[in-house]
Every structure is written in C-alpha cells, then in structure tokens.
C-alpha cells in the first residue's frame, strides 16, 4: 500500500512499534530492533567515540539496506526524468552520497545549507539560509534530501522557499522521521525510518558538530550531553 504523505510502501503490512521489540524504530516491511549484535559489532570498531554512545538505534547494515531500497524506489518513480537532488548541509551529506550511488537513473546534485539549531539539542525555531543553490530549479524535478525531520520547521521552510522557484515537481526524501516531535504538519514522500523522540547522532547527524562520522544512528549517554553543555 502506498501512503502518500507518509512515504511508506508496505508489502507485508505496517511494521509497528510493538513488533519492533520496543526500540520504536519502523522501516519498510520489517521492524528494526535495537540488536545487541549491532552494538557489539559497532564496539568492535574500537573507536573512542563509542564510549559516548548509549544505544545503537539503527545499525550500519540496516541503513545500507534501506538506502538501497529507497534508491530503487526513487529510480522507478523518476524513470525517464532527471531529478536534481538537493542535499541539505551538513547532516544529509552521508545519506545523499549513499542514496546517489543507489540510483540507476540520471540525476544531478546541488546543496543548500540551512540552520535551525544552535549547538545544543533543542530547536531554536529560527531557520536561515547559510548557502543557497548554485543553479536555478525552475522546471526541474526536485528531490530534497534531508537527514531528519523533527519539528518540521526546517523542511516546511525549504518546501515553501523552493516551491516559489517554480520547479516541475518537489518531493522530500528523509532518512529519519521523528514524527512525535512535529510542530507543523509536513508531507514526506520517502522515509527511511521513523524513530522515537530521542536525540540521535551518527551517519551525518551531529551533536555540537561532533559524531557525524559514526557509521550508525545512535543515542549518546546523558552525561556526554551534559558535559558538552546540552540539555
Ligand atoms: O525538523 P527540524 O526540527 O527543523 O529539524 C531538522 C533539521 O535540523 C538539523 O539541521 P541542523 O540545523 O542541526 O544542521 P546540520 O544539518 O548542519 O547538522 C537537520 O539536519 C534538519 O535540517
């Protein structure tokens, strides 16, 4: 079933929270559990950063599989067209680069830098453009690529801003949907995982500009956030 506005295509029914073993992560077709094996294999990376991680919410393997599936879906949906993927710096960089490699159609890339957060873990509610697109998008099929939609303030601003430039079409592909935190409704066309209301880092997402290089999506130990001045 295709649920436009949510962006899930489910063959085997909706993979829900209960089925997810309590981790609260949902993805297409099957639940992701917080599996200890993934955590253990992450620890085997022997990175000092891992001491700061309390939980792995989405493992590297699950991300890779989901990004491949999204790439196939987007390639099928845009067959015969040449979308421009707009990566939102900086968080979407890793997702965009993997998603791009999963596409089997022609596609171009541009970037915008938007800021809605300070260095803490709370939204400031202030959205501003730090870097605009290099090229016009009038008449183009535009796919915004974001790492996370949280309150929805950033993506709402982006949609309004980019729509005013008259693209032929405008869609959103987001890796993580933290739906519980939404302050305004937004339509998301492609979603990697729905996650619970936890502040997450890794695979491009930061806390105070750190942890973007973790290969998985994880949650930091509370004392790490306290020590670095967050909530
Ligand atoms: O839905 P919202 O509550 O608006 O939050 C989502 C936005 O917050 C993060 O960006 P951030 O400003 O932290 O910049 P970054 O991508 O450089 O980390 C994220 O990359 C989204 O753009």
Automatic annotation (TrEMBL):
MF annotations from Gene Ontology: glycosyltransferase activity
Q: CDD domains attached here?
A: PRTases_typeI
Catalysed transformations (reactions): GMP + diphosphate = guanine + 5-phospho-alpha-D-ribose 1-diphosphate; IMP + diphosphate = hypoxanthine + 5-phospho-alpha-D-ribose 1-diphosphate
What keywords are annotated for this sequence in UniProt? Cytoplasm, Glycosyltransferase, Magnesium, Metal-binding, Nucleotide-binding, Purine salvage, Transferase
Nucleotide-binding: present as a keyword of the record? Answer: yes
- Pathway(s): Purine metabolism; GMP biosynthesis via salvage pathway; GMP from guanine: step 1/1; Purine metabolism; IMP biosynthesis via salvage pathway; IMP from hypoxanthine: step 1/1
Q: What class of enzyme is it?
A: transferase
One family name in Pfam for this protein: Pribosyltran
E.C. no: 2.4.2.8
According to its UniProt record, which protein family does this protein belong to?
A: Belongs to the purine/pyrimidine phosphoribosyltransferase family.
Q: What does this protein do?
A: Purine salvage pathway enzyme that catalyzes the transfer of the ribosyl-5-phosphate group from 5-phospho-alpha-D-ribose 1-diphosphate (PRPP) to the N9 position of the 6-oxopurines hypoxanthine and guanine to form the corresponding ribonucleotides IMP (inosine 5'-monophosphate) and GMP (guanosine 5'-monophosphate), with the release of PPi.
Protein name per the record: Hypoxanthine phosphoribosyltransferase
**Species name:** Geochorda subterranea
Starting at the broadest rank, the lineage of the source organism is: Bacteria, Bacillati, Bacillota, Limnochordia, Limnochordales
